[in-house]
Design goal:
alpha/beta, 8-stranded mixed sheet, Rossmann fold, 8 strands, single chain, 163 residues
């Protein structure tokens, strides 16, 4: 009986891992170079239809005045905040954990959080998140939230680059 329970537990664990891996995709990494750009932005993110759409709107908004690097969230460890005017991180809150461990390590290793904008998708509509002085914008990945999330992120970015 115990062997059968271990088998079921193993199968359930594998299903959960496959489901979790299928929920996140890598973004297509790229660099947008703008002649005479006065600012440098980096967008570190996992990919989803919802996040891709918001990220594309932000790229369209800033591409004429900024150099923009688009990287996978797993590359946070390689990002130096001092090299960018704005660091936008788009992450997913996973079940039973608050966020991606690479995000936690990144935030803990930064001495200046003033140019970091954090966006987290979560199923809990009332979930609010703050870590190391960085307030996250949170939203469920629902199409009706897309425009308001985009505008809120743009407002935070605009505030940082205008200071």
């Amino acid at each position: 009986m115990q062997i059968r329970s271990k088998k079921y537990f193993s199968v359930i664990c594998i299903i959960v891992l496959v489901f979790t891996a299928s929920c996140t995709r890598n973004v297509k990494e790229s660099r947008i170079i703008t002649e005479n750009a006065r600012l440098n932005l980096v967008f570190a993110s996992d990919a989803s239809e919802f996040k891709d759409s918001i990220r594309n709107k932000l790229i369209a908004r800033y591409k004429d005045q900024c150099n923009i690097d688009i990287v996978n969230i797993g590359k946070l460890k390689d990002i130096r905040t001092e090299n960018y005017d704005v660091v936008l991180i788009m992450d997913t809150c996973m079940a039973w954990s608050t966020f991606n461990p690479s995000l936690k390590n990144f935030l803990e290793n930064q001495t200046n959080h003033n140019n970091i904008v954090l966006f987290m998708t979560a199923d809990d509509l009332d979930w609010e998140y703050r870590y190391k002085g960085v307030d996250a914008i949170t939203s469920a990945s629902e199409i009706e939230n897309e425009e308001s999330v985009y505008l809120e992120l743009a407002e935070k970015i605009d505030k940082i680059i205008s200071d």
